[in-house]
Amino acid sequence: MPKTRSGGGLSGTQQAAKFLGVSVLAGAVLAGIALPAFGALGLAAKGTVEGFDEIPANLKTPPLSQRTTILDSQGGKIATVYSRDRTVVPLTDISPYMQKAIVAIEDSRFYEHGAIDLKGVLRAVNRNAQSGGVAQGASTLTQQYVKNVFVEEAGDDPDKVAQATQQTLGRKIQELKYAIQVEEELGKKKILENYLNITFFGQQAYGIEAAAQRYFSKPAKDLTLPESAMLAGIVQSPSRYDPVNDEEEATKRRNTVLQRMAAVGAVSQKEADKAKAEPIALKVSRPKNGCITAVSGAGFFCDYVRNVFLTDPAFGKTREERGKVWNQGGLTIRTTLDPQAQSAAQDSIKKHVYKSDAVATALTIVQPGTGKILAMGQSRPYGFDKHETQINLSVDQKMGGGAGYQPGSTFKPIVAAAALERGISPTQAYSSPYQMDYPSPISTCAGNYVNTNGEKLENEDESEVGPYAMKEAMAKSVNTYFVQMIAQTGTCAVTELAGKLGVNRADGSKLGTGPAIALGTEEMSPLTMAQAYATFASRGTRCEPIAIESITGPDKKSIPVPKKSCARVMSENTADTITALLKGVVEDGTGQQAGLSDRPSAGKTGTTDGRYAAWFTGYTPNMATAVWVGDPAHAKRMIDISIGGQYHDKVYGGDTPGPIWRDAMSGALAGRTVEQFNDIVIPDPPKKDRDKPSDNQSDDSGDQGAQGGQGDPGDASAGNDGNENGNNGNNGNNGGGFGGFPGGSSSQGNNGRGGR
């Protein structure tokens, strides 16, 4: 017996229910006309058509979140990523059993009524009126589809999801209105197709294709009757009827669906009974989502691709807009990753550095002349367990990396290139003492640097005492030589060239301006160093790093990607000269353990002060690779340490990163054409040129003593004696020694030294 108010009349809720029933019967809803506002219905409250501000632009064919597939350069799959695991399929690729099952259990009169089932609406309104709330929905498949569209549009925003799913009469009327529009324009088959593609089936599976793959490891078109009934039963409550966690409850629900199918004539009772007798036979495929599933250790490259997409304006004006496209998915992204190079990189990493080691390694390979990233790997895998990380040790902080690592002496070729561009000869000699004060003053872009604290630097070994010319200084990685060189050119020449090369700090801050920059004291990423050296390999043409070759959207149409961006940043002669210098490093210098036996190569070692990081960065004409080894936290010194099962008293750039580089490059280049450098011969300077100071000395006419005067550069009173013991040199006075650099006053530089 319905409740009445004390005065004997109908309650406000009952009056509203009666009004809704009359309106429906009168055809107002069927005509697509919005029902008049009525307080008891909640039509003026938030959640009505007027108050809902996130209406999808197209209810007929809304963009559905799908899987995005990331491919390597050869079309092989690297990983599948998605915010919602869904693959949209046409109705023809969905089992007829599945179509019948979902209709039978969710809306058995689907093919008989319009957008609204009048009997169902009246039944629900009366039930709700009696209960004083919303106890029964009676939604048709079309209405459920409309609701799912709003949920899909809400994405992962919990407020929007709650708004899209709120159970109010106002919301119900909103669904009715849009259901009418959809039914008028789509027709039953298309609505059923859309519904099966949008609905949630539990276990992270959205849409029937993903559900079929998740529970039975088969496509939706091959689903059997009992399998279809089970999946149809899940929709009402994906958690309650989850067959993975509660097979008994799922079986009961499946049998309910089967009986309903028999009752409405979708299958015979005999077919239903036979299907009921079968146990649920799951063949579960676990979700394989995200970069953590990437092959060949390419998880970090996968993550880099995602960051490129989210940060590049080519894919949307704002990060929010780009994020929406990424989350919507359905993309096929073909990348630059070379499968051979990637496998070689990971094989070498695993051979030389264990993931459980106290230190880690990261490696990046770039193609000269294009900027294409061919490989990217590291010893600590992409993941969340012990000895795993989500930090990409190969890239800058803004792209998912860390704060970077001092590159040490691998920065010296950039100093040399800046000097060559300023007209300094590759035969230039400097005194290069074992130890010296930082020269002062030195010109910078912002004034002058002055060594006010008397900061000193020294070479790696006490036997490294000049004078040296550029070729020998590069091969032996003589610190004092390159600091004397940067004192002559000024640091501005170096930082300006670094900027052209794309060499920046990994944390995004500006490079320092002190002379210690010559020793690689500014933290950088392996990708940064690899693409800088690729410029030497390409004879002075620098290319922006590229990770994405092409993208196809959900509609199979091509999406524009950033084009190759290359520019000349130094002369061919300068680049070729640097190559000649770096060939000496692997042939006769500190990088001999990295040299390739079957093709020409060039490179440079680097070991930072304190041995917190060690590098080898080098190249052939067709690949440039940077290898870093160290503690990402900058806390562990590589002294008295075991790496990859091999003990090291002290780690050098040549003995740990060097072999990693050699093995990675050997594998990456195997079977490829042997290309040659454009060779330049750098003559050894005549003895008198090797022994004399730079051109800006006050007096360079005499032969120097065995170790030369180690006067303070820039101080004409220093270096009065020809050798450090005095009175041995010839014409060593009046600023002779090897000082006499141009000066001025300025900011403080960073202390430190770059070892071999």
From TrEMBL:
Keywords: Carboxypeptidase, Cell shape, Cell wall biogenesis/degradation, Glycosyltransferase, Hydrolase, Membrane, Multifunctional enzyme, Peptidoglycan synthesis, Protease, Transferase, Transmembrane, Transmembrane helix. InterPro entries: Beta-lactam/transpept-like, Glyco_trans_51, Glycosyltr_51/Transpeptidase, Lysozyme-like_dom_sf, PBP_transglycosylase, PCN-bd_Tpept. Residues 685-694 have a biased composition (Basic and acidic residues). It catalyses: [GlcNAc-(1->4)-Mur2Ac(oyl-L-Ala-gamma-D-Glu-L-Lys-D-Ala-D-Ala)](n)-di-trans,octa-cis-undecaprenyl diphosphate + beta-D-GlcNAc-(1->4)-Mur2Ac(oyl-L-Ala-gamma-D-Glu-L-Lys-D-Ala-D-Ala)-di-trans,octa-cis-undecaprenyl diphosphate = [GlcNAc-(1->4)-Mur2Ac(oyl-L-Ala-gamma-D-Glu-L-Lys-D-Ala-D-Ala)](n+1)-di-trans,octa-cis-undecaprenyl diphosphate + di-trans,octa-cis-undecaprenyl diphosphate + H(+); Preferential cleavage: (Ac)2-L-Lys-D-Ala-|-D-Ala. Also transpeptidation of peptidyl-alanyl moieties that are N-acyl substituents of D-alanine. Pfam families: Transgly (PF00912), Transpeptidase (PF00905). GO terms for biological process: cell wall organization; peptidoglycan biosynthetic process; proteolysis; regulation of cell shape. In the C-terminal section; belongs to the transpeptidase family. In the N-terminal section; belongs to the glycosyltransferase 51 family. This is Penicillin-binding protein.
